């Protein structure tokens, strides 16, 4: 006789002030670590000194002249980021959450797969950021399976991790000086 699995119905309160402060702290630590690892490697990327930061209106012409894979990727990740923010702060389990969730999954998968065709920074090879894309492609179905099995806590942790690593961390890396996002907004 098999025992039925008990669903993990205790959904974490992702909107609590304490949890948001903890997530902000984790994000700050992650970005600090990324900064400490990226800045010393800038000379290997051909950047000998940090360029001056010149914030300006977005240069849409750079997006329009980018390869098609970059355009698809940018549209997908911006869509995923916007929907992800709404999902993280909104009510969980509602029809709106499920509908936006499926849209988010589609946008995330499109962003991850399209990134595999973007090989600009490593002379045609895969880079560190592609590890995040591979992780997203593998982890996303598992996170969806957790939701289907009513493993709410596992689903919430997985999706929050995908948002943080697949969008926030990878997005921060996209703003390294000399890369497209840097040039669009700061270069």
Number of helices: 7
| Class inferred from helices and paired strands | mainly alpha
The tally of strands reads 0
Largest sheet: none
Element order, helices and strands? HHHHHHH
Strand residue content: under 5%
SSE order and pairing:
Elements: H1 17-41, H2 60-64, H3 68-89, H4 95-115, H5 128-148, H6 152-174, H7 180-185
Helix pairs in contact: 1-6, 3-4, 3-6, 4-5, 5-6
Based on the model shown, name its key terms.
single chain; mainly alpha; 7 helices; globular
What is the gist of this entry?
The protein has 7 helices and no strands. With 187 residues, it is an all-alpha fold.
Would you mind describing this structure in some detail?
With 187 residues, the protein is an all-alpha fold. The protein has a domain at 60-185. 66% of the residues lie in helices and 0% in strands. Helix 1 packs parallel to helix 6, helix 4 packs antiparallel against helix 5 (128-148) and helix 5 (128-148) packs antiparallel against helix 6 (152-174). The longest helix is centred in the N-terminal third of the chain and has 25 residues, at 17-41. The radius of gyration is 18 Å and the shape is globular.
């Amino acid at each position: 006789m098999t025992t039925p699995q008990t669903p993990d119905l205790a959904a974490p309160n992702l909107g609590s002030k304490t949890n948001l402060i903890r997530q902000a702290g984790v994000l700050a630590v992650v970005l600090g670590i990324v900064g400490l690892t990226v800045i010393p490697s800038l000379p290997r990327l051909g950047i000998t000194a940090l360029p001056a930061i010149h914030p300006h209106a977005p240069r849409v012409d750079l997006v329009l002249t980018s390869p098609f894979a970059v355009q698809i990727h940018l549209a997908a990740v911006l869509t995923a980021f916007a929907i992800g923010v709404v999902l993280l702060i909104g009510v969980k389990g509602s029809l709106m959450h499920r509908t936006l969730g499926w849209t988010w999954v589609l946008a995330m998968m499109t962003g991850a797969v399209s990134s595999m065709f973007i090989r600009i920074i490593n002379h045609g090879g895969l880079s560190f950021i592609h590890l995040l894309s591979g992780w997203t492609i593998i982890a996303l179905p598992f996170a969806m399976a957790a939701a289907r099995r009513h493993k709410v806590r596992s689903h919430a942790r997985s999706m929050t991790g995908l948002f943080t690593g697949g969008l926030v961390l990878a997005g921060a890396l996209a703003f390294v000086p000399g890369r497209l996002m840097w040039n669009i907004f700061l270069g």
